[in-house]
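Section 5.1 Outputs to date
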Amino acid sequence: MGLLDFLSAKDRVRTRQARALAAGSLYAAAVAQARAPAFYAALGVPDTLDGRFELIVLHVHLLCRRLGALEQGGAALAQALFDTMFRDMDRNLRELGVGDPSMPRRIKAMIEAYYGRTKAYNTALAEGREALARTIARNVFNAETAPGAAALAGYVLGAARAVAAAPEDALLAGRIAFPPVAPSAAASAGPS
C-alpha cells in the first residue's frame, strides 16, 4: 500500500466517523423530539413502546427523506441514520429482556414496520393533510380515526417543512431543529 492509498483509506475512515457522529446527532434530535410530552398529553399519542416507536419512525423518516434527496453524502447519511436507529432499537429490546434467540425476528419485524410506515407516509404526504391524518390515525393511534390525528398531521407537515428548509451543511453535520409541538398551531396549520 502506497502513501496515497494510505491517505485515501485514512480519509474514508474519517468520513465514516464523521457520518456516524452526524447520524448519532440526528437520531438523538429525532428521539428527543419524539419524547416531547405534548405529543402524549395534548395530542393523545399513546405513551407506550409502540406510540414512542411510531413517533421516532415519523421523525427519522422525515430526516431520511430529506437526506436521500441531497446530492453529496445525503444517501450515505440516511443509511447511517437508519442503522443508528436500529442499533438503538436492538439495545433497547435487550434492556427490556428480549433474548438473543428472538432478537433477529423482532428487529426484522421493526424494520418491516419502518418500511411500511415510510411508504404510507410518503404517499400521504404527497396526497395532503387529510390523507396524512388518516395514515397517522392508523399507524400512530391504531384506529380508523383519532382526535389527535389531524393535529399531529399538522405538526408533521410543519416538521417536514422545517426539515426541508434546514441548510444542507447543517443536516450533513448532524444538526436539525424540529418545530415545537403546539397543539393549537398544529391544528390550525393550513393545508399541505
